[in-house]
Amino acid sequence: MKIIFHGHSCVQIEVGGKSLIIDPFISGNPAAVTKPEDIKTDAVLLTHSHMDHILDAAPIAISNNVPVVATVELAAYIGWKGAQTIGMNIGGTVDLGFAKATMIHAFHTSGITLNDQQQIIYGGMPAGFIIEAEGKTVLHAGDTGLFSDMKMFGELYNIDLAILPMGGHFTMGPEHALIAAKWLNAKQVLPVHYNTFPPIRQDVASFVDALGQEGIKGIALEYGASLEL
């Protein structure tokens, strides 16, 4: 299993010649090294409806002729843009053939801001995903604060890699992300959702060092870099 970091919270998971991409925010990220039109994938997964997670979802899904997996409300919105969708909800599992994706809860907000209309559309509940494939388990927490049910996820799943936000301001910061990693009993942690915007600037090297002191392997990836599980 190969994990590619495309920046912000966007990761692509490759399994046996197929792949899924989570929260594609590429064209709006000036630091991105990949273009949305260069992404080849078999499914697009969305954790919630904020623009820095869904911006390139419909174009990528349409160009690859693949479905977008999201909460039913967000799936409806993406479907209006012409993409195939699979609407689901928290606690459910979708079998993609090459991987299974279980939607778990997160603590955040979820809405689509239409600035011209001065309107906010409800985007369904925020979520994360448990991805299981090739005997490996990857947790993508989505955007979230720290919450005690992470202990439950650590008991329910043998987590090989936890993808955790640690930028603060909009999500948990490094101190709470460190606690989350311990509660999840994750073997490895990939920090995301940091340094994209000024309010979420963080010292990721210090976070990785703090993980190491707890016996957890932390891996901070550059945009476009990858790791193997």
TrEMBL record:
Coiled coil: none annotated. It catalyses: 3',5'-cyclic UMP + H2O = UMP + H(+); 3',5'-cyclic CMP + H2O = CMP + H(+). It comes from the Bacteria. InterPro entries: Metallo-B-lactamas, RibonucZ/Hydroxyglut_hydro, UPF0173, UPF0173_UPF0282_UlaG_hydrolase. Gene3D superfamilies: Ribonuclease Z/Hydroxyacylglutathione hydrolase-like. Keywords: Hydrolase. Residues 7-193 form the Metallo-beta-lactamase domain. Belongs to the UPF0173 family. Counteracts the endogenous Pycsar antiviral defense system. Phosphodiesterase that enables metal-dependent hydrolysis of host cyclic nucleotide Pycsar defense signals such as cCMP and cUMP. This is UPF0173 metal-dependent hydrolase PAECIP111892_01346. It comes from Paenibacillus auburnensis.
